[in-house]
Amino acid sequence: MFLQTAPAQGGTSNAEAMKHMGFGDLIHNFDPLGWIVFITLVVMSFASWYFIIANAIRNAMVRSRAEKVIQGFWGTTSTQEAIRELEAQPKGEPFSKIALDAASAVAHHQQATAAGGGRLAESLSRSEFIDRALRQAVARESLRLEGGMTLLATVGSSAPFIGLLGTVWGIYHALIKISASGNASMEAVAGPVGEALIMTAFGLFTAIPAVLAYNFFNRSNRMTYAQFDEFAHDLHDFFATGSRVEGVAPTQK
Description:
Elements: H1 2-18, H2 23-28, H3 32-74, H4 79-87, H5 94-114, H6 118-123, H7 126-145, H8 149-181, H9 186-241
Helix pairs in contact: 1-9, 3-4, 3-8, 3-9, 5-7, 5-9, 7-9, 8-9
């Protein structure tokens, strides 16, 4: 009789102990360091998802409007009409801002030259002035696309180690509890071990989306940068010489 009931009691005890490995028990048993690790991971997770969603929306809008803006500029019949078309674009649209900066540089250089030259006309030719304006515009718009990338890289690289800190701390608690009670049963260590496992998983769940998003946006941004450079070169040729090297361009009127 005794041999039949003892395993059943042990199995029941282990089953009850496993119930103390849940998320609710993890929160209940947190100490100050556990709370710091947990809150840090929560903040990192929310911040990374915010930038994942924001960058996904922004990149989708930029990519969807890029061809329309570029073709719309080259499809107009005059520079003035092209500028009006560019000014009608949304505030965050980068290709129109690059073209508008080039047009503004041309107008500024023409005004300086018409006013008698001055230091601007003497130090920089029309082509050099346009090139400098385009470089600055491309760098500015490229930097805007980088928003949140540093945070995603930081979360992706550090979140697993922060979760590992929680893991080590949970195991340390398990060892302290065993040492204090002299009892190494499942019931004694289930809570601390559960805390350790959950913190490990939480660190990975925080890091993995950030890493995947960083790699995706990094590739997407490289493709957009290539479009920036191509469009900027065409704009330089057009505003510096009055005609586009390839294709049909608006005439400077």
